[in-house]
Design a protein that fits this description.
The chain has 184 residues and is of the alpha+beta class. The chain is 23% helix and 37% strand. The protein has one domain: Jelly Rolls, CATH 2.60.120. It has six helices and eleven strands. The strands form two sheets. Strands 1, 2, 3, 4, 6, 7, 8, 9 and 10 form a nine-stranded antiparallel β-sheet that branches. Strands 5-11 form a two-stranded antiparallel ribbon. It is globular, with a radius of gyration of 16 Å.
Length: 184
């Protein structure tokens, strides 16, 4: 289930509130330009489904998103709990960063945790299957796959080059609980 935990961005990083109502979560994120919507993610995917199979299964949704946001390309990121590089992939985006492009993700399976640093808070948003999130370019954020990742997301880009992470150097990500500490 999609959830949001909001932390003060100043030490001791106290929890301000926790939400589990999708509409309330979307409303709490909207002032920061974050879009959170519920989409249908009920198409069954085989465990060995290729990226092309996944993109084909959600081609209609992808076309709608491309038309709506001007996105030019997309790809698939699928991580399973036994992925041999899961630890390295998790570490890759655990530090606060920004992109020159929007970060748009449609979760078609599983869950992952976005941390958005905006408005004097860190918004820890657990996205689950059916969630579409769009984080505007230039927004400070990071992402946690969890120790045992299990998700499939379709990622959309205006330009793949614009999605390159630029790390801020702010240590805030080290002060907020990891996925396991929030989802527990």
């Amino acid at each position: 289930m999609t959830s949001l935990t909001q932390y003060d961005d100043a030490a001791p990083h106290a929890v301000r509130q926790s939400l589990s109502d999708h509409g309330a979560i979307a409303a709490a994120l909207a002032p920061h330009g974050i879009v959170l919507e519920r989409w249908d993610a009920s198409t069954p995917l085989a465990g060995d489904a290729s990226d092309d199979d996944i993109l084909s299964a959600y081609a209609g949704d992808i076309d709608k998103l491309k038309a709506r946001g001007g996105y030019q390309s997309c790809d698939v990121l699928r991580l399973a709990p036994d992925h041999p590089q899961r630890t390295d992939l998790r570490a890759k985006f655990l530090a606060e960063h920004i992109h020159d492009d929007d970060e748009v993700r449609f979760f078609v399976e599983g869950a992952g945790l976005f941390y958005i640093h905006a408005g004097g808070m860190v918004h820890a948003l657990e996205c689950t299957a059916g969630d579409l999130i769009a984080v505007p370019a230039g927004t400070h954020h990071w992402f946690d796959t969890g120790e045992r990742p299990s998700f499939t997301v379709i990622r959309l880009f205006t330009t793949p080059d614009g999605w390159v992470a630029r790390f801020t150097g702010d240590p805030i990500a080290e002060a907020i609980p990891l996925y396991e500490g929030i989802a527990a």
